[in-house]
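Hey,
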Amino acid sequence: MLSCFIYNKKIMYMAEVLLFEALRQGLQEEMDRDPRVMVMGEDVGHYGGSYKVTKGFAERYGDLRLLDTPIAENSFTGMAIGAAMTGLRPVVEGMNMGFLLLAFNQIANNAGMLHYTSGGNFTIPIVIRGPGGVGRQLGAEHSQRLESYFQSVPGLQMVACSTPYNAKGLIKSAIRSDNPIILFEHVLLYNLKEDLAEEEYLVCLEKAEVVRPGNDITILTYSRMRHNVLQATKSLVYKGYDPEIIDIVSLKPFDLGTIGASVCKTHKVLIVEECMRTGGIGATLRAAIMEHFFDYLDAPILCLSSQDVPTPYSSPLEELTVIQPNQIIQVVEQLCEN
């Protein structure tokens, strides 16, 4: 459905787009723009991808640019890295991000390091993307949060999309980058809707997004938890609190400029993530804030993370392992009343 409005004397056309469709639009625009862009992965070709991000691409681009691979993540990820070294710009889709643990060696020792170990002779312009996070009764092996695994690997860049708008802009920017980039998509956000302008745009890979300005407390989050935070904020605002919400977007490196400006204003910080508590993004972010902005804090930094257990299949138990809006409300009240 199309709608339009006038901005700077120009007619802007808007269309309601689902997040997976936004990813498809961004990928298609880049494949049309640059013949070096290719996609490989399990069922990405004639089947159209496990979540239909590449639906119709096989007919549009042919089997050489839409490469259906065997169920062998280590092999086709290594092949994509070799393709990137020789001048192509491959996009690797993991049918589920948890399966990419089978390609950890290729991603860590090759994609992350070859630019440096070759003395700069090779660049690795590869994008690794696919569905991850805790879904709905997908079980432990399909409910992986790989950001905690890859954040310490030198040479890798990581971003997480949370809306159709930033999903499209991030995948386009990632494809154009010469760095190896992991784009994290949440399996429960693929059907999220948003009106997008038809005009082309990019989203910065290193910039956090201030979702809601506020003065009482800084809430740092990303991916699915952005929406849990926004849900909790409705109740917090009704109770008189004024939280500032920041979607960090860039999981590596952090946008400490945007984050620091907020901390210096509110003096209190809550981190909300779906990642595990031990060794997660929140732990690293908390350490960075303590290192750079400790003098501006009026209270300890609190971090709400998933429990350090394999995600249960049972729906009630699964819900208990992930942060819920009522927990966010309680902790914000606790911090703001101190």
